[in-house]
Amino acid sequence: SGIHVYYLTDGILSKTGDTATTLDDLPVYVSYWDIKRLYRLVSSGRGYEPIEINFEKKFGQQVTCLSMAGNTDEYQGFLAMIPGDILAALYEEYGSRLLELNVRAFLTHKIKVNKGIRKTILDEPSRFLAYNNGISATAEEIITERTPDGDLAIKQIKGLQIVNGGQTVASIARASKVDKCTHLNKLAVQAKISVVKAGLLEELVPKISRYSNTQNNVNEADFASNDPFHISIEQLANTVWTPGEQSRWFYERAQ
Predict the structure, then answer these.
(1) Spatial CB neighbours of 95, under 8 Å, sequence gap ≥ 6
(2) pTM of the full predicted structure?
(3) Could you tell me which of 25, 138, 158, 235 has the fewest CB atoms within 10 Å of its CB?
């Protein structure tokens, strides 16, 4: 919830963009649009206005990351750990604009996978990183710098789009807004961020979404195969001889 104010003018402003403040504890988001910004949106050929986030100014902290060794001018890869409260705040402010290049919208918390995500958020936030696959995102530009400890951190990001993992982000935002969850800062989400030129977005984003969603399928039976009972039976089959001691048992625990 909150108040969204859009300031539009056919003149030219000295500064455009988005700001956030509060009014009696109610979030107020103000978006400034002048004729230049409107023209860029219409003439750019893209269906969205790039989201620009300065983590340092907006959240008072940077997001530590790892940079891919083979980064080029055409493609750069980063791995980051994004706190849950930051993701929730971004979704609260930008909503579906974050997911405009995603393959699907939120499927509600009643879907089995989303129910599991919600349960982990509420009951086991410290284990969220272990249980969740994280998100895949694209960006047009990332500005990084070294922290006093020498770690690489994302200071600012432009054109952020979550192309896989929208269910995760929406579930975290719902836990904040509907469930009034106050411990999202204890929750971390791994993020693979691909920085690509704007001209390559149409080519690369569909491939990222497709390949992220078409990896080897894991069935419930595959999870059951790792049950301690089945592991013990397999170990016995490999060590205990059959009567007559001429051969061993065979137990197919996993295909």
Answers:
(1) none
(2) 0.66
(3) 25
